[in-house]
From TrEMBL:
InterPro entries: c-mor_Regulatory_Protein (IPR052411), Homeodomain-like_sf (IPR009057), YraL-like (IPR049739). It comes from the Bacteria. Transmembrane segments: none annotated. This is Mor transcription activator domain-containing protein. It comes from Lederbergia ruris. SUPFAM superfamilies: Homeodomain-like (SSF46689).
């Protein structure tokens, strides 16, 4: 989150109205409802996990055992089991 000067961002009338409530303080203005990004969208980690899980499902469907997938992907038995038996 970066700092922005209110004089640059807001119209003068709105700034005067806001100054009735807060003067010389930082105010956080949240995004509108429904605009928020989901976890991992900015960093790309969400997509990485989606691709990794798809690969694990594919390998499992080709006959690789859960034990082998555990070692290959450094995940627990329960984590691999959740991935391969999920309905995605």
């Amino acid at each position: 989150m970066k700092y922005m000067n209110a004089h640059v961002v807001f119209p003068k009338d709105l700034l005067r109205e806001m100054q009735k409530y807060v003067q010389g303080e930082m105010v956080y203005i949240p995004n509108p409802e429904g605009v928020r990004k989901k976890w991992g969208e900015n960093s790309g980690h969400r997509e990485f996990l989606r691709q990794r899980n798809a690969e694990i499902r594919h390998q499992f469907s080709e006959g690789i055992s859960i034990d082998q997938l555990m070692v290959q992907h450094s995940l627990s038995y329960d984590s691999i089991k959740k991935i391969v038996y999920s309905k995605k």
